[in-house]
Specification:
Number of helices: 11
Strand order of the largest sheet: 4-3-5-2-8-9-1-10
Shape: globular
Oligomer: single chain
Length: 377
């Protein structure tokens, strides 16, 4: 017995050491790859936008079409990070192909820093979505490595904190009129909870207790400000003469009107959200993130403030029930008309082509800039 034990223990320790060494090497390689990937993608995207800038004055529609295409290619790089780590996405629920070419407000529960890259991975597989999308994100992201890209694409950076909410809503309204509508964007991505689940849960539950609202465990109560502003700005108002009007004097009822509300419930495996460092390093075992779709015509959203608040809260109570069922059974409940569960597939050949394009572009831009500097000096 003792002899067997002395033989098995070193072998077990050796296997454990080998596994840890393999994971460590994988993490180091992935971190280096993501750093290098950022270096040869983001600067060259910015250079291309500078090259195309004259088109913004001469032929703005062509400029923004090219910008959207490059923006999609850049987000495809982010999509590859999670895909290459084995973090797949499973989608089910309503058929969202109905809304992808229309003006759509996308509502998502917010759990971690992985929510945005996982949504990017989801939409990367759907043609024409990412070029025409507008993200609403915390202003802190403006100062990250990807901030310059979002500034060029004209995403919206929202102010956080109680004292800033009124100003943030005003700025959002201005941005919708000045950027979202003129750029002919389609989807707006909004996280109505205004923060991560782990950070807001206690405050949300205290507010719920004070106001006789349901106590939510898997989501937090949504905030109405940005949601209400978007609905208001993208909905024509009935006049007493039967016509329509809007705060935006150039509002076109047919093309500018919000058509759909897409409610996405994100559920992570075992109730453990991924985060951006995990996606970059890939140290967690392969797992699946589930996204459940509920699609509503925008006409179903009440315009009165109290009724609108109730409608939005009802969606979050539904999310709570969905997540409770998912974490208990491992599956979302199906409903009438829902699509079958499907794993989103990515195109690895396209990933390779895009990498080669960005690398070649970076080299070409380097040579051009080096030549121009040589002429000056």
């Amino acid at each position: 017995m003792k002899t067997d034990l002395t033989i098995e223990m070193p072998d077990g320790r050796l296997k454990q050491f080998g596994y840890r060494a393999t994971v460590t090497c994988k993490v180091i390689i992935r971190i280096l790859f993501v750093l290098i990937n950022n270096i040869y993608c983001i600067p060259t995207y910015c250079v291309w936008m500078i090259i195309f800038f004259p088109l913004r004055k001469i032929h703005p529609n062509l400029y923004w079409k090219l910008e959207g295409l490059f923006f999609h290619w850049l987000l495809a790089m982010v999509s590859m990070w999670s895909w290459s780590a084995g973090y797949d996405i499973v989608e089910m629920g309503d058929d969202i192909r109905l809304c992808l070419n229309d003006r759509t407000l996308v509502l998502v529960n917010h759990q971690s820093t992985a929510d945005v890259p996982m949504l990017m991975t989801n939409f990367n597989s759907k043609a024409g979505v990412l070029p025409n999308i507008m993200w609403i994100m915390d202003r802190i992201f403006k100062f990250t490595n990807f901030g310059i890209v979002s500034i060029i694409h004209q995403d919206f950076f929202i102010l956080s904190g109680k004292d800033q909410r009124e100003q943030a809503v005003k700025e959002l309204r201005t941005h919708i009129r000045g950027s979202y509508l003129p750029r002919q964007r389609k989807l707006i991505i909004l996280f109505p909870e205004g923060g991560f689940l782990r950070k807001r849960r206690e405050a949300s539950q205290r507010y719920a207790q004070k106001n006789n609202l349901p106590l939510l465990e898997h989501v937090t109560l949504p905030r109405l400000g940005a949601f209400s502003a978007i609905i208001d700005e993208l909905s024509p108002k009935q006049t007493k003469y039967g016509g329509v009007t809007n705060n935006n004097t150039e509002f076109n009822e047919n093309s500018d009107k919000l058509a759909w509300i897409l409610d996405i419930t994100v559920a992570y495996s075992e109730g453990r959200p991924l985060d951006l460092p995990t996606i970059i390093m890939g140290q967690r075992r392969a797992c699946r993130t589930h996204m459940y779709y509920r699609l509503f015509p925008s006409s179903l959203v009440p315009r009165e403030q109290e009724e609108m608040t109730k409608w939005l809260f009802d969606r979050w109570e539904e999310k709570e029930r969905l997540l409770e069922t998912f974490y208990a059974t491992g599956e979302f409940p199906s409903h009438k008309g829902s699509r079958q569960t499907a794993v989103i597939q990515q195109d690895c050949v396209r990933f390779l082509i895009l990498h080669l394009f960005f690398i070649a572009s970076s080299y070409a831009h380097y040579r051009i800039i080096h030549y121009l500097i040589g002429l000056v000096w």
